[in-house]
Structures are given as structure tokens and as C-alpha cells.
């Protein structure tokens, strides 16, 4: 606690906003701690997922054979875009019946989760205070991060799901024997004793490949969104430096508005791009599971 009192107010502000509303009431000390549950990440990710499911359900229910409305046209354009990408990557038509809707859901889900980063940093704290829910030091809502994709658990959990799909389709297409055989015989093929000698190296390389795909898929989304969230916090500090109607405060206030607006506009591209990249890599990895080395 003594060390915490020596940090600057700016650092304390940022550190406060980087702590999740979790089951231990403090910042997670280890990278992997299965005893910690981040309730804010669970709430917002599940809520955004339910909104996507409801959105797609409404679109499917309102489909008409006549002239489509704007809502139906927009959804059909999204579906056609994802389906075209899936056709060029996943060769198996039967697999695409599941993979294409999955890719569309993932794309929209990540977009909605990423869009939460555009909510002002201190907006929820203000709402909690205005509604009397708390958000004072010591209250359960004092720590709250609204952006699920800036929580490493969420992107890595999603990438783990993609990894399981890679295993599922690899075993389904190549059969269990063929899948296991490929782990030990690819990418370096050799007959006889040479093949036995290379088998451990092939297995190690395949394990590294699967691990690298999963880690890079999750870390790419997490890294970009965490960096964007941190920049919003730094911009918020400009507005927090207001001390009255003087030159320095006015300059910082104008800088806060300009920098915040410019970064928010640029961040919209990041929000969409990261969702598209995650969707495309999901299709690519599942498509590779259908292929042999």
C-alpha cells in the first residue's frame, strides 16, 4: 500500500481503469489464474452475443420473397460477403453450412464487443453514481471494464474455440487414424527408418503450429483493442487536467476534444478491421484443417 501512494494521480487513474470487476476484488497478478472470474467481461461479451443472435433471428424471421427492405438487404449483403469468403477458403460444401454462419456470428459479435471501446472511459462510473448503484471505492462496481476484447481471457477463449474446430474438422475429414498419422508424417515426409527418425520432429512442429495459430489469433485481437483502450485513457487525462478558465486548461481541453474525436474516428476502422481479420483467420484455419500437408 505504501508503494501505491507514491504513484502519480495519472498512473493511478490508468491503473484503476485496467482492473476488472472480478471475484477477488483486485488486479489479477498472474497471466493465467483460473480462480479469478472477470464478471464485467462475462456480462458484456454474453450481452453482445445475445444481441447478435437476436439480430440474426429477427433477420431470418422477417425474410420475404418480395422486394426486401433495408434491414433484409443489409443482412443479405453481410451473408453474401461471408459466404463468398467461405467458398474461396473452405472447399467442403457440407462444412460451409456450419462454418459460414459461425464466421458471420463471430464477425458481428467481435464488432459489437469492439464498439464498446467507443463508450467514454468514465461514462459507466458516472451512470453508477447517478443511479445510486455505487462505484465508490470499496463498492463492488468500483472496478469495471466495459471492453471484453481488451481482456486476454475473451480473445484467447475464442481462439481456443477455433483450435477445437480445427481438431474437429481435421479428425472428421481425415478420420482419426489419418489425422494422427499426419501429425507424425508431415511436413517432412520420408519412407522407412528415416520416417521414424523424423516422426518426433514432425509431431513437435505440428504442435508448435497449432499453438502458434491459436496464440497469434487471440493475441492480435487483444493487443490491438488493449492499445486502443489505453490511448483513450491517455486522451481522457487531458480533459482531467482542467483547473479553470486559463490558457493551459483551455489548450488541454481543446486537445482532449480534438484527439478524442480523431482517435474515435480512426478506431472505428480498427474495430471493423480486427473483426474481419479474426473472421478470415477462422475461415483459413478451418479450411486448412480440410487439407493435407
Number of strands: 0
Report low-confidence residues grouped into runs of 5 or more.
1-5
Bulk shape:
globular
Gyration radius, to the nearest Å?
A: 24 Å
Q: State the helical fraction.
A: over 70%
Helix and strand composition category: mainly alpha
Count of helical regions? 9
Straight-line N-to-C gap: 56 Å
Largest sheet: none
Notes on the structure:
- The protein contains 9 helices and no strands.
- By secondary structure, the chain is mainly α.
- The longest helix has about 50 residues.
- It is globular.
- The N terminus is likely disordered.
Can you give me a brief rundown of this structure?
By secondary structure, the protein is an all-alpha fold. Helices cover 73% and strands 0% of the residues. The protein has helices spanning 2-5, 9-17, 39-61, 70-89, 93-115, 123-131, 153-185, 192-240, 247-289.
What is the fold's blueprint, element by element?
Layout: H1 2-5, H2 9-17, H3 39-61, H4 70-89, H5 93-115, H6 123-131, H7 153-185, H8 192-240, H9 247-289
Pick out its properties.
disordered N terminus, 293 residues, 9 helices, globular, 0% strand, mainly alpha
Amino acid at each position: 500500500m505504501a508503494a501505491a501512494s507514491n504513484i502519480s494521480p495519472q498512473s493511478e487513474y490508468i491503473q484503476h481503469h485496467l482492473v476488472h470487476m472480478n471475484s477477488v476484488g483486485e488486479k489479477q497478478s498472474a497471466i493465467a489464474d483460473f480462480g479469478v472470474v472477470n464478471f464485467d467481461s462475462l456480462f458484456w461479451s454474453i450481452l453482445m452475443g445475445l444481441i447478435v443472435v437476436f439480430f440474426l433471428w429477427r433477420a431470418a424471421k422477417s425474410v420475404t420473397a418480395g422486394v426486401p427492405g433495408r434491414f433484409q438487404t443489409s443482412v443479405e449483403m453481410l451473408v453474401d460477403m461471408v459466404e463468398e469468403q467461405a467458398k474461396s477458403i473452405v472447399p467442403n460444401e457440407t462444412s460451409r453450412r456450419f462454418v459460414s454462419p459461425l464466421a458471420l456470428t463471430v464477425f458481428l459479435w467481435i464488432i459489437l464487443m469492439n464498439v464498446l471501446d467507443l463508450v467514454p472511459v468514465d461514462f459507466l462510473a458516472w451512470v453508477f453514481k447517478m443511479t445510486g448503484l455505487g462505484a465508490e471505492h470499496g463498492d463492488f462496481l468500483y472496478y469495471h471494464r466495459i471492453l471484453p476484447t481488451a481482456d486476454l481471457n475473451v480473445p484467447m477463449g475464442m481462439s481456443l474455440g477455433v483450435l477445437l474446430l480445427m481438431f474437429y474438422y481435421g479428425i472428421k475429414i481425415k478420420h482419426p487414424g489419418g489425422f494422427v498419422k499426419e501429425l507424425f508424417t508431415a511436413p517432412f515426409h520420408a519412407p522407412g527408418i528415416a520416417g521414424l527418425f523424423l516422426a518426433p520432429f514432425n509431431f513437435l512442429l505440428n504442435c508448435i503450429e497449432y499453438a502458434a495459430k491459436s496464440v497469434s489469433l487471440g493475441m492480435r485481437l487483444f493487443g490491438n483493442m488493449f492499445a486502443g483502450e489505453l490511448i483513450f485513457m491517455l486522451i481522457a487525462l487531458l480533459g482531467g487536467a482542467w483547473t479553470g478558465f486559463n490558457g493551459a486548461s483551455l489548450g488541454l481541453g481543446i486537445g482532449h476534444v480534438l484527439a478524442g474525436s480523431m482517435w474515435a474516428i480512426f478506431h472505428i476502422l480498427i474495430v471493423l478491421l480486427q473483426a474481419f481479420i479474426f473472421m478470415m483467420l477462422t475461415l483459413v484455419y478451418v479450411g486448412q484443417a480440410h487439407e493435407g500437408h
